[in-house]
Amino acid sequence: MISLALDSKPRLPRGVRLKHDAVRNEWTLLAPERVLKADLVAVEILKRCTGDATITAIVDDLASAFKADRTRIESDVQTFLADLAAKRMIDL
Amino acid sequence: MTAITPRDLPAPIGLLAELTHRCPLGCPYCSNPIELDARAGELDTATWQRVFGEAAALGILHVHLSGGEPLTRRDLADLVAHCAHVGLYTNLITSGVGLTRPVMTRLAEAGLDHVQLSIQDSEATSADHIAGYQGAFARKREAAALVQEAGLPLTVNAVIHRANVARAGAMVALAITLGARRVEIAHTQYYGWGLRNRSALMPSRDEAKRAIAEIERLKVLHAGTIVIDHVAPDYHARYPKACMGGWARRSLNVTPSGRVLPCHAAETIPGLEFWSVATHALSTIWADSPAFQAYRGTDWMQEPCRSCARKEIDWGGCRCQALALAGDAAATDPVCMLSPNHAVVAAIAEAEGVQPVAEGPIDYVYRRMPARSGASSASD
């Protein structure tokens, strides 16, 4: 697995975008030849991948917004973004 | 599984829009039909825009703007803009020939999401011979640079056959040099012009195996740099591919003149009734078109598919290939080792998969429009 620097600022590159699919009533991440279903956790992470916030800041924000265990969230965010990075679906 | 009714029919995900059959290249592996649609019969801008609107409403997410060479359509940027307007993700599948800086800028501004650029080989002389077009290789390099400059993601795709099978790995390296995030390495599928040229295209089993092993190795080596999507050669496989993810399950294809097909080769199957966007709404075609219903689900299957545990994994393989090799579109794809006709595939792979004894360029039947149709008109 790719290891991500906590001070990197993840950003969806052009050609990768989050879309609410009204026909199926679900969120999807659209990318070249790929459609990934995005669950609610994924949507909350992706909405924060604007290129402005560091991974640390995103984790802090999620932990505070959802009053959840920070360690657990950091691990979830790392795993999720590393997978997207391996698919070249996120820029760091 | 019972028959699928329109009510529980899943919505399609992808639409392949073959905007035109006109193309400057003549690649011998092209899967377009031998009978190409002439320019005069192509759908106009307004009709394509209506089709894209209907596609978005039906649940389509990705539109693949293809051909032929879609850049020969002067309304391409208008079509892209309309797709963006109705929320569709647009993928331009191009040879790169005709992609100038002003065209690239207009397409990017129209909201194009992604460009997929074909390459024929990693060496210019061979690449141009395969394409049947002098200078194509150089123009593709320029096209890749323009895509990069416009900030769009680039996928490079390469079709593997006898003339380039030894350079499968070099084509991945070229894709990285060209700045691609993704590369598709697909062994030739024998439909349309590809079937016509099969004996000139089929690599030997050993060459194919070497190329497969190399690509699989590169996948691991380049993880995080470039994503490699690998379509292994079907004639050397044990089980068939889940062609189109199952007939009429995930996607549809609109031809230049508006016929709607479950896959781009479906017209090779005689007796299928295709409906046109000129006479039916896309949602009606998806649900009720006789061609879509013909092999949807599993009820149409014969043995050994009918009782096979894999029937909802590979959906019986490819109908067009079953017809071409077993003489029956409802038969198990003969690529499957369980098919009673599997020996036919092995025999073809052995007989045609031999290296040419003579050195030098291979003779192909290049994909061309019939001269009399006037399809390659002077106004291009």
TrEMBL record, chain A:
Pathway: Cofactor biosynthesis; pyrroloquinoline quinone biosynthesis. This is Pyrroloquinoline quinone biosynthesis peptide chaperone PqqD. GO terms for biological process: pyrroloquinoline quinone biosynthetic process. The keyword Mitochondrion does not apply. Pfam families: PqqD (PF05402). InterPro entries: PQQD, PqqD_bac, PqqD_sf. GO terms for molecular function: quinone binding. It comes from the Bacteria. Monomer. Interacts with PqqE. The gene is pqqD. It comes from Lichenifustis flavocetrariae.
Automatic annotation (TrEMBL), chain B:
GO terms for molecular function: 4 iron, 4 sulfur cluster binding; cyclase activity; iron ion binding; oxidoreductase activity; S-adenosyl-L-methionine binding. Residues 9-229 form the Radical SAM core domain. PANTHER family: PQQA PEPTIDE CYCLASE, RADICAL SAM DOMAIN PROTEIN. [4Fe-4S] cluster binds at C23, C27, C30. The keyword Iron-sulfur applies. PROSITE patterns: RADICAL_SAM (PS51918). This is PqqA peptide cyclase. InterPro entries: 4Fe4S-binding_SPASM_dom (IPR023885), Aldolase_TIM (IPR013785), PQQ_synth_PqqE_bac (IPR011843), PqqE-like (IPR017200), Radical_SAM_PqqE_MftC-like (IPR050377), rSAM (IPR007197), rSAM_sf (IPR058240). Its cofactor is [4Fe-4S] cluster. The keyword Oxidoreductase applies.
